[in-house]
Input
Amino acid sequence: MAEAAPVLDIPAQTVPIPSTISPQAQAFLAFATRRLAERAEEPDGGGLAASAEAALQSLRRRAEGFRGEVETIDLGEDAKLYRIVPAGRDAARASLAYLDVHGGGFISGGGEMCRVLAQLRAMEQVVEVWAVDYRLAPAHPHPAALDDCMAAYRHVLGLRAPEKLVVAGASAGGNLAAAMLLRARDEGLPLPAALLLLTPVTDMTGAGDTRVTNRHLDVTLAGGEDVLSLYLGQGDPLSPYLSPVLGDFAKGWPPTLLSSGTRDLLLSDTVRMHRALRRAGVRAELHVTEAGPHGGFMGSAPEDHELIAECRRFCDEAWGIQRP
Output
């Protein structure tokens, strides 16, 4: 019988908000920490519905400046694709496209949230954005969301050249974006110019060091990891279409930017994905934010703005746009 591996027995400790981050980031962590303490006393187990509504209200305010066109395409099976065209694009950006896959733990983030986030992406990138409003778990477990993403990818490829397309996904959307490209490649479809994976879920087996070490540090995902099983359903977590980090990237893969934070529960998912891509010879950048929880500081801090600038630079390089 194999001897059990030793474990570190770490004494209880108090972890302060670091002075090494911006005042805005410190304020975000302070607010989120207080909110976690309040949730522990709430009878509904955390007031998640109220938190989601508060996040949507914030996003609405940030998207108030959007000017442009919004079109809704029916993908069938209750899935939709939003086409967001910002006003003021110059000639160099008129033929470009950005396909966005929203996060939300596979169980939320659709509808208005998906559309508003796409408007924000269009304002940041100043290009046409396509956003997949895929079916959600638990009513629709794997592979429903992935099937919807594939339908969206085929639709966009029918209208835009792959070298003019960037694919992006955050959190659960990062999982779906990476799985979608693995499946697209396996089915003989062309790959996009670049891929952005922002605090992605890349391993559905539950492996990864920070799944343990950051469990009580991540103020965003505290208590929320269990929702992944609602999407997994009867699927095999060892399948690359569920755990993209286990995929074979040597068969072809686009340049990829990955981001996470030192307090992100999924930091290990991001780091391991980065190393898997590098081992396969893929150009891959890794950006890790000091004290950043899952999803960063929700657009409230300079650290978030720096990451947005890095994403835009990376996309412009992929599209061949000369920056001043």
About this structure: The CA atoms of residues 249 and 300 lie 35 Å apart. The mean pLDDT is 92.
